[in-house]
Specification:
mainly alpha, 74% helix
Length: 139
């Protein structure tokens, strides 16, 4: 992901409205979003374990982490949900890029393709979460 970050940063730094492309970088990034599936599926269980933990050493660690100023007032629960919020944020960002990009722009088709791929990943994540919750209800 550092490679993509550097590519995007270079393109933004050297921005030219008529020729700069972001869509191809975003297309390369979209397959990596699938890694969020496992994290998302285990989030509820992780949060539950965090809240119900009776280990004093661990709870002291969490308390210290939650009051650490380097986290900008965010607690561990808020940090844990951030990866889950990332895919919908990418979706919204790319939607905005597509809306702001003329259809005849060199980047338009790649942006539309990237949006479709991110939508697919987001829909797959939603379906996996629902399937996981349905299985949990059965047991």
């Amino acid at each position: 992901s550092d490679v993509y970050k550097r590519q995007l940063s270079a393109r933004i730094r050297d921005w030219d409205t008529d020729s700069t492309r972001l869509g191809d970088c975003l297309l390369k990034l979209t397959p990596l979003l699938k890694i969020y599936k496992q994290y998302t599926m285990s989030f509820d269980k992780s949060l539950s374990r965090l809240e119900q933990n009776e280990n004093k050493v661990f709870n002291e660690f969490v308390h210290n982490a939650n009051s650490n100023p380097i986290l900008g007032g965010l607690d561990l629960k808020a940090l844990l949900i951030m990866p889950i919020q990332r895919v919908p944020r990418y979706r919204m960002l790319i939607q905005d890029l597509v809306k702001a990009t003329p259809e005849d722009h060199i980047d338009y088709n790649d942006l539309v393709s990237a949006l479709e791929k991110v939508k697919h990943v987001a829909d797959d994540l939603d379906a996996s979460i629902q399937e996981y919750k349905n299985i949990e209800i059965l047991y």
